Structure formats: C-alpha cells, structure tokens
C-alpha cells in the first residue's frame, strides 16, 4: 500500500456538537417512566376517592378500603383468590414438572416430538380454552354430561365445571405448559453427574428423582411455583366465566363486577386492585430474590455432560401414553370441541342427529358481521404496533442498563420490568383511571389500548433485549466508534442488527400475547375499538356459542399459521429458536 | 506526535469502589514510531490505551495529538472517540459478524461525514485488503475467517480510515504460537512501511522487544521505565522491570566502594564481591540489588582467563534441564543458587564443581 495514501491529513472535526444520542436516551427513559409510574399513581389516588356522581364531586375517603376489608363477607374474594391461585399453580406445576422430568431424564419414546408439541397450547387464548371446557363440562349443555346421561339414561350431573374445582382444573391445565417450560429449563441447567453418582450409590430411580433431582432443583421449583401463583392470581378469564355465574368471586372478577355495577364503583375496584398489586408484587419480589440467590445452588458446571437417559423399561410406553393423553386434553380436545360447535347451527352435543346438521352458517355470520373487518384490523394494529414499539424502545433501555455507567440505570431496568406485577385487569383499571383524569383525548380511542399493551408487555421486551445485549461483546460497538461512527449510526448499523435474533423472537412472542390479550382490553375498549378477544367475550355474554366457536377456530388457525411462518422465517434468516 | 501527560483514569470495580487504573501516566510518542505499553495484566496499560482512544474518560491529565487537544481535564475538553480518527484493533478483533469482509472494512468510510463515493470506497477497501492479503476473501462472511485472517481484517479496518494514530490492544494474544510469530513480523513490516505512529499494548515481553521502537513498562497503574528494547532489557532501572522483562538472578548486596569511571562500583553479595554497573555513584553501604541475566552467567569446566572486567567464582551444579536450544543450570554458590543458561554442548553432571564468569557491565545494580 502507498504510505502517502495513509498519511493524507486527518480530518479535523474538533467542535463538540449536541449529540442526538441524549435525545433518544432521554426520550426512552421518559417514555418508560411515564408508562410504568403514572397509571400506578392514579390507581392509588383513585382508591382513596368517593364515587363521582352528578353534582357530587369526588372527595377523599378511606371507605373503599373499609368496604373491601370490613366484614367476613367482603373478605371472601381474598380467600377465594388464594384457594384458586394455590390450587391452580400446584396443579400446573405438578403436571408440568412431571412431564419435564419425563422429557429430560427418561428414555420415553418420541421425546423430541413431545417437546416441540408442548408449545402449541400457549397459542390457545385463555378465553377459548375456558369456553371449550364449559362446552365440555357444563351441567346443562356440557358434552361430557349429555353423553354420559344419554348413555346411562339418567339426569345426574357427572361433572360441574362451574365450581372452584372446575376453575382450578381449567386454569391449572391451561398453564401447565408454562410450568413444563420452566422446569425443563431448570433440569437442563443441572449437572446430571450429580444424579448419576446417586444412581451409582445404589438409589432407585424414584429415589434419585425425589432425593437428588427435586432437592437440587429446589430454588427453581420455588421460583416456578411463585411465577405460576402470581399468574393464577392475575387470571381473569377462568374466574369470570366459571366463577361469577355461581357467585365465586376472586379479586379479578370482583374488580370487574365493581366497575360494571351501576353506578360504577371505581374506588372500590381500585382498593381491590391495590391489594392484588401488593400480593403479586410480593410474589415477584420473592421470586427475583430467589433467582438472585440461586448462585449458591448453582449446579451448572459447564462440562459437556449430556444427561444419560434413565431407562424406564416397559414403563416408557406408559409415560409416552400419558404424554399423548395430556396433549389430547390440553390441545386436541378443546380444539375439536370448538370445531364441532362451530359447525352447528345451535350448540348441541355430538350425536348422529347433530351430525346431520353440520353447516358453515356460523362462519358466514361471523365473517359478515359489520365490524368484523374493523375488529381484525384493531387487533392487528395493536399487536404489530405494540410489539414493534416495545422491542425498539427496550433495546435502547437494555443498552443503557448494560452498556453505560449512568447512575440509576438499575432503577430504569426495574421500571421497565415493573408492569410485570400489574395483573392485566389492574393495569387496565389504572390506565382507565389515569386517562379519564388526564384530558389528552386518548380515552375511548385505540391509543389507550396501545398504551395498555405496550405497558403490559414491556417487561418481556426488556428481558429479551437485555439477555441478547449481554451476549454482544462491547468491543463490537467500540470498534464502530473508533471507525468514526456516531452513537446513532452505531446503534442502527451494529447494535440493532446484532440484536436481531432476540428482537424477532421477542417481537413474535409479544404479537401472540397481544392478540390473546383480554383482561386489560375488557376495561378499555369502546364501540369501534373492539379487538378479537373482546368480541369473543361479548359473544359469550350474548350466548352466541356457535359464532364464538367459529371465530375461535379461525383465531387459533391464524395464530398457528403465524407461529409456523415465524419459525420458517427464523430458520430462513438465521434467527435463534424463539 | 502523541503527548500524554499526567493521565489519571479510574473506573468503578465490581464492588462499586473506584479502581485507580492509570496514575500519572506521561509519555511522548514521536511520529512514525511503534510505542509499546508493556506490563502484567491489571497494570493499567489497556486503560491507558482506551483513554487515548477516548473509550474511557480520564479523571485528570491531557492527551494531545499533533498539537490538537483531545482531552484536557483543566480545559474541560473531551473529544468523542468517533471524532478522533484513530484506528484501533481490539483484543477480540471485534469483527462485526453480520457483515462480510468487504462490508467490515468499508464501514469506517461509509460512516464519515464526508462520505466518499462508492467507487472511491471500493477502491480504498480493495487496496487495504490487498495490503493485508485478504483481497481474495472480500465477499466471504467475516465469521468464516480463521484467527489470523480475522486479525488481519481488524487491522485492515483500522487502516482504511487513514488514521492519525494506530492503537493495537494485544492484537496477537488470541493466536496460536506459530501464527503469532508470523504475524509479529507481518505487523512490524506493515508498520515500518507505512511509517504509521502506533501504540501497542501487550503483556508479552518478547513481542514488545521484537516490535517496538520504544517501550514503556507499566506496573500498578504507573509507568516505571521508558526506553528502547535494548535499554529495557540490558539496563532495567528497577527490580520490577528486570523481573518482568526476561528472566534474571537477583543478588542482594551492599556497596563497598564506588570505583569511579564507567559507572562501576564494588558490591558485596552472597556469591562474593562483584564489580557491577551503576548508573550513578552510590554511597558506601547503600543496600542494592544486582541483576544478572542467566545468559550472562557463563559456565565452564576449565578455569576462565582472569581478564579484567569479569567477575569469577566457583559453584556446584545442583540441577539442570535440557530445553533443546539451550540448557538451564542451577548452580549453587555458597548458599545462593544462580540460574545459568548454557549451550547444550556443556555436559557437566549434577554434583560436579563448575567455574562461573560474569561480565561486570552485565551485572546491573538496582536501587531498592
């Protein structure tokens, strides 16, 4: 190379200019702080106010809390919430942990296939899962009861889904895949040689599983149980659809009832919501402390051990059969029930007679509804919009938290993760209260729903982005700076492309959960801004079971296709597994 | 060309307490020189380099290049790294995995404010790639390169911007031994051809000795000696430098008399009275340390010529190790064991007596 070329006079650019970097960073910080804190403040404030009525301004009061906690009668939601959440999380955990162990540690046939299939239940929205179990287990119209009654020619009610047991069964079953994924991750990070040495010491397979595996995985077990508990206590669809008709109130359904009473008692709802918030915050705080301490229990050695599968002998056909049965109950059965129902004119249990009435009428009705296009459009705009906004904003937040030494960056991380403790319904309520009070004209528009979605799913974005940011060597950015690139240029051309696998995985996940979202939307929608899940809810209230089923079948189909497309795109563009 | 003076840099450690990484670091790098910062890990050499690059913000001091102030704590000046026009090769190479070889090198040209036209960029990139012999791989995925090729790619990316100063942060440490040696010559050739002022950071003393015009040895955040490779090796100014650069024998001693002329003085040591090299004339009875390199401890089975300018004594071979190119002997003289490096042809068995001869100007007196 020519030395003279390299010694061309260096460009002098000494003046300090205002850096666009700070504008972007400040914007993102304000954005996150506003979303996480302002609605929370309004919720607290509202819980100390009397109901506002014509000519009667709201004033300060403690009566909301008094009403919520003064008598045994009003303490019932607390009791019900705890029973429900403990039951549902225990059931989900038992099922999930059992199958996780089977999948990770035994030689059950078709394990790999089962693992791939176990993600499918997550795309069935909670409301559809609940409805399908009502269609199966309702005392009057439930398929199980009608078929058994027909078979034995009696009027006895065999199963009643409208009960605490029914609620726990449906909710626990619906979230067992989540427990499965949590426990699979825990088992994978464990050094199997610890179990093998127990086996060599003469312990039997159940002894090893109980005395070594479970004990070693104990912090992960506790953390998973807490996550499942918090999730169950936030659950809205199951308690609302199964509990309310027979008067079993939990916090979420009590909040919903208080708002939909006339006159609506936002203050009482807020008081309930604050309690719910306290319970879920305690759960999350305890869980994150536990995860931070797991260092002590750390069992990852980094040695390249592959777990030796435990030979179950002939029992392995039983475990495989159990897995198939489980998938049947969690995926196939609910979907088939919806499919059957959607092909009827009026809901009826399967029979030869009903078989002759098959029609696509319900699909026609749904598709020809006036607002069908608007509803689908709303859902799509909200899902794609919130996923995109969240992933971009949290990428900047993750960068600040991980790359800079700005004071208070940990607080920023906590702020972005704060909405994790908001149950969907509480978040909806807080945002409703907030933007009713702030006259900036978003109430009753699609914007308020977008705000709710972005707030609610922001924690997923920050977690995904922070994890991928940790894996990007800091020198990759520094070398761009040395090459003369500005911060914005480096972010756009180096950081974002390197984050891409995580960005896309997080984006896909947020799109799916946004489309399923019901508990925030239910408090925020107005005529014209309904989303698909809200329409399903309305159809249920109107008793349009077959139309609901048709819409549900189409929704599940669309989500399924979306996931397949996303996986294909992931492989095509070199994205790591979501 | 580059002037660093009174540089202090701190950063927060894992426990949140400030760690003083560089303290009062000052040096001057003339144009076209390869200047090395040498020291053990944690000595502050990388922090110093990063402070020059602008990737760390020093707490005090000034950095100027060609008269342009890049950092000055007094004047409150801090030029951002992307405004400095310094090329840098990182220890990890920092090759962007989402770009191919050509795109990696083109990046510095594409992001500058006065972005040249596509033809100019193509031309410059291909010329730099040719200089590091990667032109045939321009379209290859950067991640598909071998370690040595990645190293050259990182170098090409730093050179393409025609930097005022080239910063190299342990660029050879990720390569295997053979490749490291080859790349050492390659780097030296390129630097000498381009006459590009370069700052090189390494903990490998042989690398530093082989490549540099000048070396600054650092320890615990401070520069302890600056000099040419020969000065650093043959005239270490303190115990740390003598110990860190090369292998050496230390003999504690006390000055008997300054003999005057040539900086010689007599010192009593555990191996007897020695004539040693002193930089100044120390007072009688000053406690000093004498450093003798093992290759300067000459062994022979026959008594050596008692010529002037040599220290002679007798010892017993206590152990030896055959290392191929040479033989390491441990020789006991009195209560002290000396390490000596001899030609493999010397076959004195363990337990036998042996004659020792050390040239006076190779015995270096170091103040404690």
List the helices and strands and how they pair.
The complex is a heterodimer of chains A (about 575) and B (about 375).
Chain A: H1 3-6, H2 20-46, H3 63-69, H4 72-105, H5 111-117, H6 126-137, H7 143-152, H8 164-188, H9 192-200, H10 205-216, H11 218-234, H12 237-243, H13 251-260, H14 266-297, H15 315-342, H16 352-355, H17 361-368, H18 372-403, H19 409-417, H20 424-437, H21 446-470, H22 474-482, H23 487-516, H24 521-524, H25 532-541, H26 545-572
Helix pairs in contact in A: 2-18, 2-19, 2-20, 3-14, 4-8, 4-11, 6-8, 6-12, 6-15, 8-11, 8-12, 9-10, 11-14, 13-14, 14-20, 15-26, 17-26, 18-19, 18-21, 18-23, 20-21, 21-23, 22-23, 23-26, 25-26
Chain B: E1 2-12, E2 18-29, E3 34-38, H1 45-53, E4 60-65, E5 68-72, E6 77-78, E7 86-89, H2 101-110, H3 118-131, H4 147-159, E8 165-169, H5 177-194, E9 198-202, H6 205-211, E10 214-219, E11 222-227, H7 229-234, H8 239-244, E12 249-258, E13 264-269, E14 272-277, E15 287-292, E16 297-300, E17 310-322, E18 327-333, E19 336-342, E20 353-359, E21 364-367
Parallel strand pairs in B: 3-9, 3-10, 7-8, 8-9
Antiparallel strand pairs in B: 1-2, 1-4, 4-5, 5-6, 10-11, 12-13, 12-15, 13-14, 15-21, 16-20, 17-18, 17-20, 18-19
Helix pairs in contact in B: 2-3, 2-4, 3-4
């Amino acid at each position: 190379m020519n030395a003279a070329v390299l010694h061309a006079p260096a460009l002098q650019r000494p003046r300090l200019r205002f850096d666009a970097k700070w504008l972007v960073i400040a914007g993102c910080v304000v954005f996150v702080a506003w979303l996480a804190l302002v609605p929370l403040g309004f919720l607290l404030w509202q819980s100390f106010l009397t109901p506002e009525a014509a000519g009667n301004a709201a004033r300060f009061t403690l009566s909301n809390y008094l009403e919520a906690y003064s008598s045994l009668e009003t303490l019932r939601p607390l009791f019900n919430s705890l029973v429900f959440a403990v039951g549902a999380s225990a059931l989900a955990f038992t099922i999930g942990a059992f199958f996780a162990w089977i999948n990770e540690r035994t030689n059950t046939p078709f394990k790999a296939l089962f693992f791939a299939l176990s993600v499918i239940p997550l795309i069935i929205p909670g409301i559809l899962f609940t409805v399908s179990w009502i269609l199966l287990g309702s005392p009057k119209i439930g398929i199980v009861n009608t078929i058994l009654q027909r078979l034995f020619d009696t009027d006895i009610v065999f199963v009643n889904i409208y009960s605490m047991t029914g609620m726990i069964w449906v909710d626990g079953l619906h979230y067992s895949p989540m427990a499965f994924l949590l426990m699979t991750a825990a088992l994978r990070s464990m050094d199997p040689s610890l179990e093998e040495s127990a086996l060599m010491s003469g312990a039997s397979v159940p002894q090893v599983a109980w005395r070594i595996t479970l004990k070693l995985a104990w912090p992960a077990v506790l953390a998973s149980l807490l996550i499942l508990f918090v999730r169950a206590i936030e659950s809205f669809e199951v308690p609302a659809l199964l509990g309310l008709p027979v008067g079993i109130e939990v916090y979420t359904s009590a909040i919903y009832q208080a708002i939909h009473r006339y006159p609506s008692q936002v203050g009482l709802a807020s008081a309930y919501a604050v309690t719910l918030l306290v319970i879920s915050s305690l759960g999350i705080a305890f869980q994150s402390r536990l995860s931070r301490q797991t260092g002590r229990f750390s069992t990852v050695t980094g040695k390249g051990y592959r777990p030796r599968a435990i030979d179950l002998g002939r029992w392995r056909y039983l475990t495989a059969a159990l897995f198939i049965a489980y998938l049947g109950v969690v995926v196939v059965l609910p979907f088939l029930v919806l499919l059957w129902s959607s092909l009827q004119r009026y809901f009826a249990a399967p029979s030869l007679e009903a078989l002759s009435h098959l029609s696509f009428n319900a699909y026609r009705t749904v598709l020809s509804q006036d607002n069908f296009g608007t509803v689908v459009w709303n859902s799509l705009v909200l899902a794609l919009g919130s996923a995109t906004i969240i992933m971009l904003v949290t990428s900047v937040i993750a960068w600040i938290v991980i790359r800079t030494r700005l004071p208070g960056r940990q607080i920023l991380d906590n702020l972005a993760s704060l909405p994790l403790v908001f149950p969907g319904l509480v978040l909806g309520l807080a945002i409703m209260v907030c933007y009713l009070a702030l006259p900036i004209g978003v109430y009753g528009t699609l914007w308020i729903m977008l705000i709710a979605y972005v707030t609610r799913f922001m924690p997923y974005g920050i977690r995904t982005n922070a994890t991928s940011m940790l894996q990007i060597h800091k020198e990759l950015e520094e070398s761009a700076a040395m090459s003369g690139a500005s911060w914005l240029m480096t972010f756009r051309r180096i950081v974002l492309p390197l984050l891409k696998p995580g960005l896309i995985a997080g984006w896909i996940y947020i799109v799916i959960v946004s489309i399923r979202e019901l508990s925030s939307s239910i408090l925020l929608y107005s005529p014209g801004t309904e989303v698909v899940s809200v329409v399903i809810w309305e159809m249920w209230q109107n008793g349009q079971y077959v139309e609901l089923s048709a819409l549900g079948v189409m929704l599940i189909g669309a989500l399924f296709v979306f996931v397949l497309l996303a996986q294909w795109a992931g492989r095509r563009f070199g994205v790591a597994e979501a | 060309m580059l002037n660093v003076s009174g540089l202090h840099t701190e950063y927060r450690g894992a426990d949140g307490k400030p760690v003083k990484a560089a303290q009062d670091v000052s040096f001057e790098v003339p144009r076209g020189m390869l200047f090395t910062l040498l020291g053990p890990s944690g000595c502050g050499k990388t922090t110093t380099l990063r402070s020059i690059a602008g990737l760390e913000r020093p707490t005090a001091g000034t950095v100027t290049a060609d008269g342009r102030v890049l950092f000055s704590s007094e004047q409150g000046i801090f030029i951002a790294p992307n405004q400095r026009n310094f090329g840098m090769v990182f220890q990890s190479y920092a090759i962007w995995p989402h770009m191919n070889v050509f795109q990696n090198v083109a990046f510095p040209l594409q992001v500058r404010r006065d972005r040249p036209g596509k033809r100019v960029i193509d031309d410059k990139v291909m010329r730099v790639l040719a200089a590091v012999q990667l032109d045939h791989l321009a379209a290859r995925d950067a991640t598909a390169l071998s370690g040595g090729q990645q190293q050259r790619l990182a170098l090409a990316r730093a050179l393409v911007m025609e930097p005022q100063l080239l910063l190299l942060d342990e660029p050879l440490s990720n390569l295997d031994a053979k490749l490291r040696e080859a790349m050492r010559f390659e780097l030296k050739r390129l630097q000498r051809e381009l006459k590009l002022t370069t700052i090189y950071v390494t903990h490998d003393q042989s690398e530093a000795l082989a490549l540099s015009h000048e070396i600054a040895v650092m320890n615990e955040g401070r520069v302890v000696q600056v000099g040419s490779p020969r000065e650093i090796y043959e005239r270490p100014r303190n115990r740390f430098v003598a110990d860190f650069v090369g292998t050496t024998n230390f003999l504690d001693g006390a000055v008997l008399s300054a003999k005057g002329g040539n900086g010689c003085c007599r010192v009593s040591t555990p191996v007897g009275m020695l004539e040693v090299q002193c930089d100044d004339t120390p007072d009688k009875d000053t406690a000093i340390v004498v450093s003798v390199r093992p290759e300067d401890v000459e062994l022979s089975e026959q008594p050596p010529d008692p010529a002037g300018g040599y220290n002679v004594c007798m010892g017993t071979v206590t152990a030896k190790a055959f290392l191929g190119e040479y033989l390491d002997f441990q020789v006991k003289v009195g209560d002290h064991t000396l390490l000596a490096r001899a030609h493999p042809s010397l076959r004195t068995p363990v337990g036998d007596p042996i004659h020792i001869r050390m040239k006076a100007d190779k015995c270096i007196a170091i103040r404690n």
